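Page 37, continued from 36.
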């Protein structure tokens, strides 16, 4: 079985969010279980120099982008048992940032066709091309319209994984022929709500669809979560399933992590306390062992649930002894809210803007409680990383949060869960967490269950394998 994993970001090369984590860790897990899993991604200007220096140029070819004929260089690297293909076109990818350019449609149409063309120019002949989000959603479209008719491609199946349905790749109808090179007679594949919608096209054409948690697979059939695609997905639900993401448990391991202050493990959880003290010190919070420290590491955007935090944080600070460490950037509204709170309550809350991986790890290791009140959360990786470092998640019951965190009501859970999207419900869950924190025996149990929990890729990689096998056996 050979899989070509097509993705617009993957660690250790480049990442802007959870997609890059998954692009970096799922192929490694798959490769351990089968003959071939290779990754293809664009060669962006922003790829770190030490990775760029290791790349080897292997071949080049031309890619049709409608009437254009564009150069594509292929650079290769083997890392951790996986071969990576980085596709080079300086005009499209030697720019600042990964997304958000005026011609993203053309850039990712190029990348999608180039990933398909690649199969003709290397000796790696995939059985399945596994695509991710709108950036590679044209691969299933081109496969069914163009490539499946060629003998060397006819056997290839496509899987499309939706990591977040909010981002769909929506463009003007005017570019169907000129940019995508698709004739009017096929306009219906991409057309949706008066525009062209790349994710919708991928949903129509992929052989199988997956999302990143079983609960999210159900949620996106509902208008509250679907960002307009529920009817399209309901018509295609026979091919939709949800497979929970895992995390990279080698990189995220409190026993070996070089970024945290003191290493510790499930067998020796005492190491958490010095991490907390050192974090408090670094942040300039009072160093108090018995003040519960709540961590937030997140993009500060609406769907992460920060409206609820805005409404109730002051009440929480005034009625408890909790401290807070907030790391993240995003919407001005939330950035300035946390900045204001940090100014008003300097002994209780500290805020850092941006994404600072080293500090993120220190917050996972040094916090007692990890807050993630998302309005929607396709999977979410932070709650799993928090568990791995023994920080107890307080989450809203949605998507992957529902599938990975169970409430501690019966004394056997690994976190605290609330259901309704309301500040009061979030506060109640936080208060239950704070009460549990002050009961030493309960808390020791929670932390040791968290530290022992297994969110590695092993189960999920096996599920992907099953899906690929089912697909290719249908041949
Ligand atoms: C997106 C989702 C997030 C998920 C990640 C990886 O960023 O918003 O919930 O964990 O993709 O699949």
């Amino acid at each position: 079985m050979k899989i070509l994993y097509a993705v617009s970001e993957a660690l250790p090369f480049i990442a802007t969010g959870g997609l890059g984590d998954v692009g970096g860790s799922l192929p490694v897990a798959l490769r351990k279980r089968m003959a071939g899993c290779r990754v293809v991604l664009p060669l962006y200007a922003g790829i770190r120099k030490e990775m760029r220096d290791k790349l080897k140029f292997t071949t080049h070819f031309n890619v049709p982008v409608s009437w254009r004929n564009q150069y594509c260089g292929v650079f290769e690297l083997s890392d951790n048992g996986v071969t990576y293909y980085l596709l080079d076109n300086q005009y499209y990818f030697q720019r600042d940032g990964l997304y958000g350019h005026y011609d993203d449609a053309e850039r990712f149409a190029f990348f999608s066709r180039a990933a398909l063309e690649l199969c003709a120019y290397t000796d790696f002949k995939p059985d399945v091309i596994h695509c991710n989000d709108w950036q590679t959603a044209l691969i299933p479209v081109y496969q069914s319209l163009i490539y499946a008719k060629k003998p060397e491609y006819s056997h290839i199946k496509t899987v499309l994984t939706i990591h977040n349905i909010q981002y769909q790749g929506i463009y003007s109808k005017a570019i169907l022929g000129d940019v995508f090179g698709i004739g009017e007679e096929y306009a219906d594949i991409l057309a949706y709500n008066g525009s062209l919608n790349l994710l919708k096209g991928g949903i129509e054409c992929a052989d199988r669809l997956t999302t990143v948690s079983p609960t999210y697979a159900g949620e996106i059939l509902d208008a509250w979560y679907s960002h307009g695609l529920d009817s399209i997905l309901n018509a295609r639900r026979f091919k939709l399933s949800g497979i929970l993401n895992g995390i990279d448990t080698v990189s995220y391991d409190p026993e070996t992590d070089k970024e945290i202050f003191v290493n510790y493990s499930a067998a020796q959880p005492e190491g958490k306390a010095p991490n907390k003290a050192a974090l408090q010190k670094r942040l300039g919070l009072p160093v108090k062992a018995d003040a519960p420290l709540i961590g937030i590491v997140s993009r500060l955007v609406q769907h992460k649930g920060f409206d609820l935090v805005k409404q109730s944080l002051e009440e929480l600070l005034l009625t408890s002894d909790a401290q807070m460490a907030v790391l993240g950037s995003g919407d001005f509204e939330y950035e300035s809210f946390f900045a204001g709170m940090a100014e008003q309550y300097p002994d209780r809350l500290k805020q850092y803007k941006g994404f600072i991986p080293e500090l993120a790890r220190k917050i996972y290791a040094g916090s007692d409680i990890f807050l993630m009140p998302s309005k929607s959360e396709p999977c979410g990786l932070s709650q799993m990383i928090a568990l791995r470092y023994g920080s107890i998640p307080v989450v809203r019951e949605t998507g992957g949060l529902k599938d990975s965190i169970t409430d501690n009501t019966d004394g056997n859970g690994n976190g605290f869960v609330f259901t309704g999207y309301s500040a009061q419900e979030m506060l109640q869950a936080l208060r239950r967490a704070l009460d549990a924190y002050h009961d030493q025996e309960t808390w020791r149990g929670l932390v040791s269950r968290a530290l022992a929990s297994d969110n590695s890729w092993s189960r999920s990689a096996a599920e992907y394998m099953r899906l690929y096998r089912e697909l290719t056996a249908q041949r």
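The longest helix spans residues 104-121. Flag for discussion at group meeting. The pocket of alpha-D-glucopyranose is lined by residues 17-19, 22, 163-164, 212, 245, 377-381, 400 (CB under 6 Å).
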